[in-house]
Write a structure and sequence with these properties.
The protein is of the alpha+beta class. It has four domains: about 5-180, 2-Layer Sandwich (Nucleotidyltransferase, domain 5); about 195-280, GIY-YIG endonuclease; about 285-380, no CATH class; about 395-475, no CATH class. It has 17 helices and 16 strands. The strands form four sheets. A five-stranded mixed β-sheet has the order 3-2-1-4-5, with helices on both faces. A five-stranded antiparallel β-sheet has the order 15-14-13-12-16, with helices on both faces. A three-stranded antiparallel β-sheet has the order 7-6-8. Helix 6 crosses helix 7 (about 150-165). The protein starts with a strand and ends with a helix.
Amino acid sequence: MLPNKLAFVDIETTGLRAPYDRIIEIGILRVEDNKLVQTFHSLINPQTFLPKEIEMMTGITAGDLEYAPTFNRLKDAILAILADCTFAAHNVRFDYGFIKNEFKRENISFSSKHFCTVRLSQLLFPTEQRHNLDAIMKRFAIPCETRHRALDDAQVLFEFYQKLQERFSLDELEKMVNKCLKKPSLPVHLQATDLDILPEKPGVYIFYGKEGMPLYIGKSKNIKNRVLSHFASDISSVTEMNISQQIESIETQTTAGEIGALFLESHLIKKLLPLYNKKSRIKKELVAIKSRINTTGYQECFLEPITTIDPNALDTFLGFCKSQKQAKAFLADLAKQYSLCEKLLGLEKTQGACFANRLGQCKGACLGNEKPEIYNLRSLMAFSSTKIQPWPFAGPIIIEEKELNGNQEYFAVNNWCYLGKVGIDAEGNKKSNIDQNVTFDLDLYQILKQFIKKSPLSPQIKIVSPEQLALFLQN
């Protein structure tokens, strides 16, 4: 049965970010039993800046909005016309997400069934290449007095829905509408089949935008479930909204288990530099905090820009920062917290006592008034959370992961460094992938540290001799 109460909705906004941008115009057509029963239209004062490109696209100016009502004044009327309706919009994630966020600012929890007319068009006309509003207007000869104005665009949606009822049988239309209602709202450039073929296995997924631009890389124990969670309709993340507007295709790579997915995700992020993996896109150059013992026996620090980390010198590193400024701020905090000398931390180059000593915060290591052994012990405690931990095994290890269908992956690791992988499929075919350029990687270090901390005696971990490792890497 088709929904007997529908609200065809269109909005214009100050931008694409539902949590931050605001609605400037709303148009709603409430339809009951396929008859238009109520219309709502209003400009809305967004109480924020209106970009020039939005003015050019919509024809709405800042002057038009100056004396328009705010969403706060309109909220009751909007809530009333949407009440008990199935919410329908073209790219419903956008309109529904914005309206939900506007209500959230008013401490109102808004939720309703909703479906996307873009997806409905994709399901009913799978051979058509374009499903935007302009393409639908042309295909069905639907007039629109002013494009990119909320009420006129909402009217197009209602007429499109009426045209569908003329062209398709009730059973066929019901089937497709129900399909839209039951599944997450698709981004406008994806097809339903893109989600249907996603594997329900561990691995990595890559979202691509226009012309194959990598947008986002993620990993999961169940790729399909994780990807679907990105397309939940209650959008509160700017990143999720941006991805939704830009994503055009999805690529997946399965692994035998979680550790393999974590390794692969880290590798692909560094290789492809996806636009929205900002936290994991490590700069090629880091600032290392390094240590040495000076001529008087005190541990002192110095900063060194680096592009690679020598795995044979890990004990000389006290930590890593993204910039000199971040490193100096970090060292200044440690100086206060652990009463360390700012001269020995490399923050001052003064003669005699450091400034903190004159304030009574440094215990006098800069003047030789504190024993080096005591100062160095306190310094060691200060850097305990950032210093690379000693390798907890007597030698190299191999981590094993097995999939239920028989696929196996073996990862060789030594001194926190990834050495390579051997994969064996269900038929026994073996494939090796050996890393020819072994360096220490901070991301992989964190992955391995957490994995080993969680299960240090795991049967997945096997300590091997150098000879066994060499034999493993040869195969």
